[in-house]
UniProtKB/TrEMBL annotation:
<protein>
    <submittedName>
        <fullName>FldA protein</fullName>
    </submittedName>
</protein>
<dbReference type="Pfam" id="PF04303">
    <property type="entry name" value="PrpF"/>
</dbReference>
<dbReference type="InterPro" id="IPR007400">
    <property type="entry name" value="PrpF-like"/>
</dbReference>
<comment type="similarity">
    <text>Belongs to the PrpF family.</text>
</comment>
<keyword id="KW-0413">Isomerase</keyword>
<dbReference type="InterPro" id="IPR047687">
    <property type="entry name" value="OMA_tautomer-like"/>
</dbReference>
<dbReference type="GO" id="GO:0016853">
    <property type="term" value="F:isomerase activity"/>
</dbReference>
Length: 371
C-alpha cells in the first residue's frame, strides 16, 4: 500500500470561501466533518456555512456535499475537550435536503463512529500504538462514550473485515461503549413513567406504544396495529402515504407525553414499527427518521429498541425473541440486514450498551461556499 503524500496545490483567487473539512462515512451515515475553530463561533453564522456546504435547501442538494437524503445530510463538528476526563467534544448537526433548518438537539451514533478517526487525522489527539481510545462527549445531549479504533504501529487503519449491514464490503472495527444514554433528550428512559402507553390520537383512536429514550427518543408501535407485516421494503413504506400520515399524527400526540413539547418541526421522536423477527434475530424493525423510512436503523435507535426488548411490559413483549442471561446480544433486524447490540442487564436496568461500527474518510480538503 502506498504512503499518502501531501502535495500543495494552488488555485486561482475567487469570491468563494474555502473551509477545511473532511467528508467521512460514519456507520451508515455520511457528511462533512469540521474542526470547530474552522467555523464561525456565532451559531447563526455557523449554520449558514453548514447549509451552504451541504446545498440545503434543495431536494437534490445539487449545489453542495449533501446526498439528497437525511442520512447523507449530516455534519460533525469536533474539538479537543476541556471537560475533565473527556478527550473530545462532538457536536452533531442534522440538516434536511429541502429545509433550511440545522438541528443540533439529537444524537447520531453513526456519525459518532467517525469522530475519533477524524480527530486523529486532524491531529487533535496523538495516535496510539496498537489501538487508540478516546472518551467523547456528545454536546447535543451530554452523552459520553468510549470509542476505540485500531492504530497498528501508530498508523490509522481503515481496511478490515468487519461488516455492518447497510455498508458494502468490510472495514476496520470502531468499538463504541456508551456510558449513560438513558433519557438523552427526554426526562427519563421512560418519559411517561410507563413501559406501555395507550395514546389518544385524533382520527386514529387509541394506539398502544412504548415511549422510550435510551440514546434516541423513540415511539415503538406494533406493525400489525397499522396493517403492516413488518417485513416490507423501505421503498414500499416510503410510498405508503396513509401509513406515514398516521405515524405523524401519533408522533405529534406523543411529543408532549415525552416531555418534548410540540415536535412538528423537530427531527425526533423517531417512529418505529416492530414485528417478530424474520431472519433469526431478536426483533424486526422499520424506523422512520421521522418522515422517511430508514434503509437500515440508526445506532442509538438500535440501542433504544434493544433496551425496550428487555423491559417487562413494553410493546416488544411477546414479539421479541430475547436471549437469556445477564449479558444479552440483541439482534435488531432492519430492511437491509441486522444490527447487533450487546446489553448488560440488571433486573429492569440496562447498565451497559456496546456495539461495533465502521468509518472511513472519503475526501480531505476544503468545501467552497459563497462568502
Amino acid at each position: 500500500m502506498s504512503t499518502h503524500v501531501n502535495r500543495a496545490m494552488e488555485y486561482a483567487p475567487s469570491d468563494l470561501r474555502a473551509v477545511p473539512c473532511m467528508l467521512m462515512r460514519g456507520g451508515t451515515s455520511r457528511g462533512p466533518f469540521f474542526v470547530e475553530a474552522d467555523l464561525p463561533a456565532d451559531p447563526a453564522q455557523r449554520d449558514k456555512v453548514l447549509l451552504a456546504a451541504l446545498g440545503s435547501p434543495d431536494p437534490r442538494q445539487i449545489d453542495g456535499l449533501g446526498g439528497a437524503h437525511p442520512l447523507t445530510s449530516k455534519v460533525g463538528i469536533v474539538r479537543r475537550s476541556t471537560t475533565p476526563g473527556v478527550d473530545l467534544d462532538f457536536l452533531f448537526a442534522q440538516l434536511q435536503p429541502d429545509s433550511d433548518t440545522v438541528d443540533v438537539t439529537p444524537n447520531c451514533g453513526n456519525m459518532l463512529a467517525a469522530v475519533l478517526p477524524f480527530a486523529l487525522e486532524r491531529g487533535l489527539l496523538p495516535i496510539g500504538d496498537g489501538t487508540t481510545t478516546a472518551r467523547i462527549l456528545t454536546l447535543n445531549t451530554g452523552m459520553q462514550c468510549d470509542v476505540t479504533v485500531p492504530t497498528p504501529a501508530g498508523r490509522l487503519q481503515y481496511t478490515g473485515t468487519t461488516r455492518i449491514d447497510g455498508v458494502p464490503g468490510g472495514a476496520a472495527p470502531v468499538s463504541i461503549e456508551f456510558l449513560d444514554t438513558a433519557g438523552s433528550v427526554c426526562p427519563a428512559l421512560l418519559p411517561s413513567g410507563r413501559a406501555l402507553d395507550h395514546v389518544a390520537v385524533p382520527g386514529l383512536g387509541t394506539v398502544a406504544a412504548t415511549l422510550i429514550d435510551n440514546g434516541m427518543p423513540m415511539v415503538l408501535v406494533r406493525a400489525a396495529d397499522f396493517g403492516i407485516a413488518g417485513d416490507e421494503s423501505a421503498a414500499y413504506l416510503n410510498g405508503h402515504a396513509a401509513l406515514k400520515d398516521k405515524l405523524e399524527a401519533l408522533r405529534l400526540a406523543c411529543g408532549p407525553l415525552m416531555g418534548l413539547g410540540d415536535v412538528k418541526a423537530k427531527n425526533y421522536p423517531k417512529m418505529c414499527l416492530v414485528a417478530p423477527p424474520a431472519a433469526g434475530g431478536t426483533i424486526a424493525t422499520r424506523c422512520f427518521i421521522p418522515h422517511v423510512c430508514h434503509d437500515s436503523i440508526g445506532v442509538l435507535a438500535a440501542v433504544t429498541v434493544a433496551t425496550a426488548c428487555v423491559l417487562d411490559g413494553a410493546i416488544t413483549q411477546g414479539i421479541a425473541s430475547v436471549p437469556a442471561g445477564r449479558t444479552k446480544a440483541v439482534s435488531v433486524e432492519h430492511p437491509t440486514g441486522e444490527f447487533s447490540v450487546e446489553l448488560d442487564v440488571d433486573g429492569q436496568q440496562v447498565t451497559r450498551a456496546a456495539l461495533l461500527r465502521t468509518a472511513r474518510p472519503i475526501m480531505r480538503g476544503e468545501v467552497l461556499i459563497p462568502c
